[in-house]
Amino acid sequence: MSSKVQFASAPVDIxxxxxxxxxxxxxxASTLLKAAALAAFAFLLFGPLANLVLWSFAERWYAPFxxxxxxxxxxxxxxxxxxxxxxxxxxxxVSIACLTVAVALAxxxxxxxxxxxxxxxxxxxxxxxxxxxxxxxxxxxxxxVARVFYSIGxxxxxxxxxxxxxxxxxxxxxxxxxxxFAAVDRDLELAARNIGxxxxxxxxxxxxxxxxxxxxxxxxxxxxxxxDEFTGTFFVGVPQVTTLPLLLYNxxxxxxxxxxxxxxxxxxxxxxxxxxxIERFLKADVLSKVGQ
Amino acid sequence: xxxxxxxxxxxxxxxLAMIGALFLYPLGFSLAAAFTDGSGNPTLAHFAKAYExxxxxxxxxxxxxVTATILTGVVSIAIAGILTLGExxxxxxxxxxLYRWPLFIPFIVxxxxxxxxxxxxxxxxxxxxxxxxxxPIQATSLLDxxxxxxxxxxxxxxxxxxxxxxxMASVDRxxxxxxxxxxxSRPRVLIELVLPQVAQTLLVGLVLSFVTMLSVLSxxxxxxxxxxxxxxxDMAFRINSYGDYATANALGVISYAISGIAAWIYxxxxxKREVQA
Lengths: 292, 277
Hints:
Number of strands of chain A: 2
Strand order of the largest sheet of chain A: 1-2
Order of helices and strands of chain B: HHHHHHHHHHH
Structural class of chain A: mainly alpha
CATH class of chain B: Mainly Alpha
CATH superfamily of the largest domain in chain A: MetI-like
Number of helices of chain B: 11
CATH architecture of chain B: Orthogonal Bundle
CATH topology of the largest domain in chain A: MetI-like fold
Oligomer: heterodimer
Largest sheet of chain A: 2 strands, antiparallel
């Protein structure tokens, strides 16, 4: 085979034509092989998730049995009982995530605009600075954040957790916001200025609406990051702030697989929805400018 | 030109303040705690203690992260290669819709999934036994280093594949077709023609994955319980059980150093590329 590539002038490969029947058999075998490989891939991909769903509906499931001994929604009722731990964790998680989005957007929209449109000294260095928190092993940072927060009374508070989550999501929000602003056609802004709009009015009526889909994408990113964040909350939020990931962890380590699985499923829904719809929000023109 | 620049700095100032307060300051704090003793004199004693207690775990962490990164790279290249060069439309279409599912699934959810899936009586062993592929007696729990690696690869492959497949889609089709017309097999086209053109993207994805895996606390805690374990778990243990910030921060500096190796590989490759260009 190798000679055919090395000698560009060699004639195009003409294989010996096999008989039609053998060709059909070969095609069938290869289809079967591909289907089997795909099935194995799907099993490895979805098997762990299927196990999660099974556990959430298993009322009793112990060693020799391959499937749950009895099914039911008892644990779902426990989780969704209005006074239960899970509902309060869900409320905590969602409010922390909303606050984190508000903080992150308030900080990253101006920063993104500045990075995309204004002359900044050391622009590349600034972009990399926002990436650094993601490029460092975070546990070592969080234990020291917790120590600093402890001295100023921020450990175990919602505000402390929100700050940690916002800093963690900042690289996404700033980079995506910068990309979203960079993708806005400058001529449209100039046209608005030409017909007499002030810079501020141009920003709020032209630039910001056009950049909105990208900023929405960054908001969703930050929301999900906050909802799923475990390590920072583990160090900064304990013992008062129990988000869903912490509830999941405690339930799982305590051997309560049903509660852990249901909590995991609750966290799974927004993640999978986002995966399915991300392309609606993050258009290719914005995506191609991320990190530039 | 000074005015807009000053205005820009004003707009970016809150973001910089946040990075300073919540990243740079704690980073300085961790370095100070790792390199000084109680009265502020420089010392390496914390590293000696960290090495004495956790040298196995340092090697274990390196082994897990390097192996998982390599496996992630291999699987991602294979999937992205099939997506780009595949000639079976239904296979490519199904694979394209399948591979992305774990993309945004949080590590802690992945850990909980694997904790049940890979157990001795988990769904994986049970399914293999039910299909007659494995004898019940052969069923073993994979909840140790293998479990951690499987979880990491499961979680990171979609991310790297997404990046690599995107890069492969923008590779000039005519080079691929030229290679195919000259009789090169698809694996050969993938490795010799396509891969060099997407190496940069692949490297970025793998370096990001490497650092991510180094930072995850939930997976080693939940998937593999006992010793040896990863540095993240050791750090949490030092803090929560002993309040021993000195040793924990020494371990932290060691984990910075490990991620520094990844950054160094990335930068070296970049410099080499620029020299060639």
